Amino acid sequence: MSRTLSLAMVQYPAEARPDSSDFADRMRSFAARYPQVRMWVFPELHLDSAEPWRNPEELAHPLDDARFAALGELARELGVWLVPGSVYERGGDGRIYNTSLVYSPDGERVSTYRKIFPWRPAEASTPGSAFEVFDMPGYGRVGMSICYDVWYPEHTRHLAWMGAELVLNLVQTGTSDREQEHTIVRGNAIMNQVWIASVNSAAPTGRGRSLLVDPQGVVRAACPESGPEVLTALVNFDDAAAARQFGTAAVSRPWSQFRNDDAPIPLPLYGGRIDPAVWNYEVPAAAALSVPSDTSAIPVVAALVPVDTSAIPVIPSS
């Protein structure tokens, strides 16, 4: 059975009025115009940031808010997978997170992901601490990423390790580094042999140039400009499995690099987790040298990221 998904990447500016019905009306119009599309993906903070000078405290809602329940109802009404971008979430701890939402055609919220790498110092939201993937029955596994997350290779690598074949990178880049982001997106797709959909906001809230990259690093679809555009494309999840089995360009198979009798390679930078205390380059050399060279002494904090590995593809070692 084909695992081909019809995807729409909606490069639009953020909604002008966060609590209006504009988004629902626009989605109904889009769905009528493109009835074959099964998944709709919007940019980062699409529903919350048309007026960037507003304090996130004014915009944040808890996830059980009626506003978000209405998004689930909209997905159910239209019978589509709906990723309405990310929103400011007020967590149970009182903090504000930049959180992506995913709704199934049944109207169920099947995924919430809190951005792990907020763009500092400009972005004031609290970092999340858990990577997020979800399953699309009949298609495959999808990983969530928000804007600056993609700049950290550990992020996409972890999603791929969790079995993601498609990564949705929700973006609101209005700065001059969108060109570099194109290179980063292609690099992450190649290194991890995954599809990546990088959906940026249109002007004036972003610089556009959204793109879809396949597991070989080929740009399958792209918006060349910053204006509003609905970019439709087909994502064949089997392409990720093929890249991992036969290799990128039928040559390189990074997921099959190691054999069972290879010795483990110490990664003292991590020690089982990303620890801010040893990450920043400003940390004095003496502090960095205090990381134990004997990896048996490094505490592995596996419980920080609960992972279901049952769907991770096993590549033959031949």
What does this protein structure show overall?
By secondary structure, this protein is α/β, with parallel strands linked by helices. It is built from 8 helices and 13 strands. The protein has helices at residues 22-33, 56-59, 66-78, 153-161, 178-192, 238-246, 276-279, 285-289, and strands at residues 4-11, 39-41, 81-83, 86-90, 96-103, 109-114, 133-136, 140-146, 166-171, 195-200, 211-213, 219-222, 229-236. Strands 7-8-9-10-11-12 form a 6-stranded mixed sheet, with helices on one face. A 4-stranded mixed sheet has the order 3-2-1-13. The protein starts with a strand and ends in a 29-residue tail after the last helix.
**What is the tally of beta strands?**
13
Task: Give the CA-CA distance, first to last residue.
Answer: 26 Å
Mean pLDDT: 87
Strand order of the largest sheet: 7-8-9-10-11-12
Number of helices: 8
Q: Structural class, from helix and strand content? A: alpha/beta
Ranges where pLDDT stays below 50 over 5 or more residues in a row are 283-318
Round the Cα radius of gyration to an integer and report it: 20 Å
Please summarize what this structure is.
The chain has 318 residues and is of the alpha/beta class.
